[in-house]
Design brief:
The strands form 3 sheets. Strands 12, 13, 14, 15, 16, 17, 18, 19, 20 and 21 form a 10-stranded mixed sheet that branches. Strands 3, 4, 5, 6, 7, 8 and 9 form a 7-stranded mixed sheet that branches. The longest helix has about 40 residues. Among the domains are: about 220 residues, no CATH class; about 160 residues, no CATH class. By secondary structure, it is α+β, with helices and mostly antiparallel strands. The chain is elongated, with a radius of gyration of 34 Å. A hairpin with a 6-residue loop joins strand 16 and strand 17. The chain is built from 21 helices and 21 strands. Helix 7 packs parallel to helix 10 and helix 13 packs antiparallel against helix 18. It is a multi-pass membrane protein. Pfam families: FtsX. This is ABC transporter permease.
Length: about 775
């Protein structure tokens, strides 16, 4: 015999369509978003991990001052490594970008062709896909450096440049102003040796088992190579940001998405509990009648669990379909918008299915079952009388009779529905946190860029490059003459140009990533850096002080990048400069620390472009474009993600507030009907019930703001300290808080309009159905 209760299911679904649609949408959107991100992320991480073997990624790379001859290579390979040429040219292109050009690789760090064909002719080039997209370059376009013109034949990804760091010490990569490319060996031969960077990749004969062993092997190797030749740089794979940054970031993203899932699950638990309890309240007479007619509690539990589980199941299935189709592609596009990744294949992620589907459904089942078990434990008579008290009812909280009637009524509505309002507060707190993050991040980057522009040390920092023949220890007399010639050649007539010394040392903080600290030695009474000329002055930049909580009197220890030599400094002042992690001191003091001549200098600070120094003597130029690289790239990479976060936050806000406001109106349906009988208009009733919810929503928004600001300050500093090199100061534009309140109230206005329509539809005879 069929269960007649099944006939009620379609009617219940129709009458409670709004509630079940919200439950469905919450499951659908959450599972779609999280499963899409986890599937895309897991597939990307798997593809990234495969690249190490598939494309034979180097164990490290080193840069020498000059090309190694066969004898030197043989000597270096005695350290149980194999060296591979990986020479390149950093070519300044006419589109104001820098393109690092390699000859096609066939042995190590081999090329992944994403689209088109590999270059085969003298004037053809394979261009990094991400660089091409960011600069609106397509296959068939031409690219010129003013002397050479290349035709793009294919879009590629180089596995040792999955993240486009031009220099391993950069705070952030810049995929808009910097890119990598390959040409044929014949085409690469056009560049003169003076333009080449003598870079070599190495592979160990016996690869290290882990990073700890890799570190020991790298230190031994570095010492051995440094004893044989002049090292310009030495970067083992585990320290190479161009390789490892991508993998670390993708794994971190998955952790953040799982945290998002767990928070949403907590909110869903509240929602399921309240909606189930409300269903019992609405169906009290029916339940009492059914219990009195002989239906057991377990039969009713099964009946009232059917629709929530069915709707949740459909939401879960469709959410997974969304996750594995459109959302997976969308999330993958976010990764491809940030990194130069190779091709990937979608992998079935059993863990994602467990976390996003099985656990939420089990949670839904358990919560619904427990709530129903508790609510249905009352006697049939109590259900018929709608008496849900389990204990002696407490006396109502006394309210002053001096308060106007409407005010007392609203307070009573709030007190009677405090559980709903607490859930609304939790939902708003979470939704606003996401919205705050989405709105704050672009604002912080814009402020950082503006702050850097307004507080430049100068318009140009020219770093000089001393020729090798001026520092040859084996030919001291010749080197001294060459040094004198060099110093004469790098004198400038540029007005306002000021000599300075510059060095770079690494941090030595335990448990933190190694960062490069720039040491500036400036002239007494410098026009660019207002610094005390007293001997022993060491001022930390504001960025350095903020990141590592430095204050005057603190002592810091720094070390040479590829040596064990350490230096200790005592901070005497904090200098207001956010452009770098830096120390400032008098030039003579800096030269003395590094045993240099007191008149030695490394470059010029200038507000005017220097044109009377030969380009071969200029190592690099630090200008506004170089300093704002981090904000430019993060804006480019995170724009799509922030829009997704903002959209999801608003959806969560709307769903939570709508569902719980709807329940509140339904719960008070009989009271609303009675007030209509007493002559109150729909507008007046709305002032009683909707105004109460409006007040609590506004209060929740206002209370959440200081909590979110405090939480975001902590989270932001953690992210900048533990996850990134460099520093961006936390900045809160007050208009963001205004926007959040406006967006919250604007979203709630939609909910209030829907609830007003619901109040209008409650008939007067509703009160007459329950006259007891």
């Amino acid at each position: 015999m069929k269960n007649p209760l099944r006939k009620r299911l379609p009617r219940e679904l129709k009458s409670e369509f709004g509630k079940y649609f919200v439950i469905f949408f919450l499951m659908f959107a959450t599972i779609g978003l999280v499963s899409g991100y986890l599937v895309a992320g897991n597939s990307m991480v798997a593809a990234y991990d495969e690249t190490f073997e598939k494309y034979n990624i180097e164990d490290g790379n080193l840069r020498l001052a000059k090309k190694a001859n066969k004898a030197l290579i043989k000597e270096l390979e005695n350290n149980e490594i194999t060296l591979y040429d990986n020479f390149y040219v950093d070519d300044a292109m006419e589109n104001s970008t820098t393109l690092r050009i390699f000859a096609n690789r066939t042995e190590v760090n081999t090329v992944c062709l994403m689209d088109g064909v590999m270059p085969t002719a003298y004037d053809e080039i394979g261009l990094d896909r991400m660089y091409a997209v960011n600069n609106n370059i397509t296959i068939g376009d031409t690219l010129s450096d003013g002397t050479n013109t290349f035709r793009v034949t294919g879009l590629i990804a180089l596995p040792d440049y999955s993240c486009l760091f031009q220099d391993n010490n950069d705070s952030m990569f810049d995929a808009q102003k910097f890119g990598v490319s390959i040409v044929t060996a014949e085409s690469f031969a056009r560049f003169s040796e003076s333009d080449l960077t003598w870079s070599y990749s190495w592979k160990y004969d016996a690869p290290p088992a882990d990073d700890a062993e890799a570190n020991d092997m790298a230190e031994d190797l570095m010492k051995s190579i440094a004893a044989e030749t002049e090292l310009k740089s030495f970067v083992p794979r585990y320290q190479n940001q161009a390789i490892v940054f991508t993998g670390d970031d993708m794994e971190g993203d998955q952790v953040m998405v799982l945290v998002l899932l767990y928070i949403v699950m907590i909110i869903m638990a509240f929602v399921f509990g309240i909606t189930t309890s409300n269903t019992i309240l609405k169906e009290a007479n029916v339940i009492g009648t059914l219990r009195a007619s002989g239906y057991t509690k377990m039969e009713l539990i099964r009946h009232y669990m059917t629709l929530p589980l069915l709707v949740s199941g459909v939401g879960a299935v469709l959410g997974n379909i969304l996750g594995y189709t459109w959302m997976k592609d969308f999330c993958a596009s976010l990764y491809y918008a940030s990194y130069s990744l190779t091709t990937f294949h979608v992998l079935w992620n059993a863990n994602a299915f467990l976390l996003t589907t099985i656990i939420p459904l089990i949670m839904m089942t358990v919560i619904t079952f427990l709530v129903l078990t508790r609510e249905l434990s009352l006697s049939p008579l109590k259900f018929l009388h709608k008496d849900f008290s389990r204990k002696k009812q407490r006396k109502a909280f006394p309210l002053s009779s001096r308060l106007p009637f409407f005010s007392r009524f609203r307070i009573r509505v709030i007190l009677q529905n405090m559980g709903n309002y607490i859930t609304i507060f939790i939902g708003i707190l979470f939704a606003n946190f996401l919205l705050f993050f989405g709105l704050l991040f672009p604002s912080v980057l814009a402020h950082y860029q503006a702050d850097i522009e307004q507080n430049l040390l100068c318009n140009y920092q020219y770093i000089l490059q001393i020729p090798l023949n001026a520092v040859n220890e084996n030919k001291k007399l010749e080197s001294a003459l060459n040094m004198m010639l060099f110093q004469n050649e790098v004198e400038t007539e540029t007005e306002g140009a000021e000599k300075f010394s510059i060095r770079s040392l690494n941090t030595t903080y335990e448990g933190s990533r190694v960062e490069a600290i720039t040491l500036y030695g400036v002239e007494p009474d410098s026009r660019y850096v207002s610094l005390s000329s007293a001997e022993g002055t060491v001022a930390a930049s504001q960025a350095y002080a903020d990141k590592y909580d430095l204050a005057p009197g603190d002592t810091i220890t720094l070390k040479e990048a590829y040596e064990d030599t350490t230096y200790t400094f005592t901070i005497t002042d904090i200098y207001p400069y956010d452009g770098a992690l830096a120390l400032f001191m008098p030039r003579e003091d800096l030269n003395r620390v590094f045993d240099e001549d007191k008149n030695s200098f490394s470059g010029y600070l200038s507000n005017e472009e220097i044109t009377d120094i030969d380009a071969e003597y200029i190592s690099s130029i630090i200008d506004l474009e170089a300093l704002t690289k981090i904000s430019r790239q993060l804006t480019l990479s995170m724009g799509g993600m922030m829009n997704l976060v903002n959209g999801f936050a608003i959806i969560i806000f709307l769903v939570i507030v709508y569902l719980l406001s709807k329940i509140l109106i339904e719960k008070n349906g009989q009271a609303i009907s009675m007030t209509k009988i007493l002559g109150y208009s729909n507008r007046e009733i709305s002032r009683l019930y909707i105004f109460s919810t409006t007040f609590m929503v506004l209060l929740s928004i206002l209370i959440s703001l200081p909590l979110e600001v405090a939480s975001m300050k902590f989270l932001f500093k953690y992210m900048m300290t533990e996850m990134m090199t460099g520093w961006i100061s936390f900045y809160l534009d007050p208009m963001i808080l205004v926007e959040m309140v406006a967006m919250g109230l604007g979203s709630y206005a939609i909910v209030a309009f829907l609830e007003y329509r619901k109040i209008r539809r409650i008939p007067m005879d509703e009160a007459l159905k329950n006259v007891e």
